[in-house]
TrEMBL record:
Top-level division of the source organism's lineage: Bacteria
This protein's UniProt keywords: Dioxygenase, Oxidoreductase
Molecular function terms from GO: 2-oxoglutarate-dependent dioxygenase activity; iron ion binding
Coiled-coil ranges from the UniProt annotation: none
Family annotation (Gene3D superfamilies): q2cbj1_9rhob like domain
Pfam families, A to Z: PhyH (PF05721)
Keyword set includes Transferase: no
Essential cofactor(s): Fe(2+)
Name the record gives this protein: Phytanoyl-CoA dioxygenase (PhyH)
């Protein structure tokens, strides 16, 4: 049985070197112009988070995790070998890899992630949960249009941040994420089925929102990331290319966020009573600043 790495609230490998000086930390921080771009558009793409060695480790770990019967499978919060249910539109989607594999655990303490996240959240950073998304070559399915916070209303206030990290080059051809810039200023929308079609969102948009519904692809090189706001409307189309499209998603929130449910916030996790601060073993503090 695999060791549950959620018991460790610091790196367990040397995969992500930590800054040793103020200058090294500052080199990882966003410029005022980048912060303004995020506030204006609701997303910030093209942030380099992983080098080639880190990519190789994470790809190898992912390759093991997509195999049935892998060690540690009892530790997942969710695991969908194909969330679409259509063998011709495969979407692998799983939550909880940080508990199983050391590289996917340690990426939470990647300073290239945490320095920008603390700036965008304007405070100390806590971990919410991770996700793995994989679209195989030729028949990779969609991730339907959605706002992340529509799935997270069991926490409050809305002080969250998503970081989508490509393990492959993400292109329009292989199903990169598309965004509606500025949609982070829209109110909360109803959820639709995440893996079964892209058009359902149109039924819940107002005429004004439909007029602004102009998808923009976010192409990234392997190892690059895009940060986006919890109300940002986004989704991704099919992978029609001969290459896979694999990604790690790290979801974060500002320290001080509260539970808004008396039920467990994730499968297998002890409940945090409504109104109490999100903390403890499964929601570690990642950054003090």
């Amino acid at each position: 049985m695999a060791q549950d790495l959620s018991r460790f609230h610091s790196p367990v490998t040397d995969l992500f070197a930590q800054p040793t000086s103020a200058a090294e930390r500052e080199a990882l921080q966003l410029s005022p112009e980048q912060q303004e771009q995020f506030d204006r558009e609701g997303l910030l793409p093209g942030i380099r988070l992983l080098d080639e060695r880190q990519l190789e480790v994470l790809r190898a770990e992912l390759a093991e995790l997509v195999q049935a019967g892998h060690d540690g499978e009892e530790l997942w919060y969710e695991y969908h070998s194909n969330e679409s249910g259509d063998p011709n539109a495969v979407l692998f989607h799983a939550l909880g890899a940080w508990r199983i594999k050391p590289g996917l655990h340690d990426i939470l303490w990647n300073p290239a992630l945490l320095e920008p996240a603390a700036q965008l959240l304007r405070g100390p950073v806590r971990f919410w949960h991770d996700q793995l998304f994989c679209k195989p070559a030729h028949d990779g399915g969609v991730v339907a249009w959605h706002q992340d916070y529509s799935y997270w209303t069991r926490t409050k206030p809305m002080a969250h941040l998503t970081c989508w990290i490509g393990l492959d080059d993400a292109t329009t051809e292989n199903g990169c994420v598309h965004y509606i810039p500025g949609s982070h200023r829209w109110p909360l929308l109803p959820t639709t089925n995440l893996a079964k079609g892209m058009d359902a969102i149109l039924d819940v948009l107002t005429p004004e929102q439909r007029a602004e519904f102009k998808p923009v692809p976010c192409e990234l090189k392997a190892g690059e990331a895009v940060f986006h706001h919890p109300l940002m409307l986004h989704g991704s189309y099919e992978n029609r290319s001969p290459r896979p499209r694999r990604a790690v998603v790290i979801n974060l929130f500002r320290d001080g966020t509260l539970s808004d449910s008396d039920e467990p916030l994730l499968t297998g996790v002890d409940a945090i009573p409504r109104g109490e601060k999100m903390s403890g073993r499964f929601f570690p503090l990642l950054s003090q600043t």
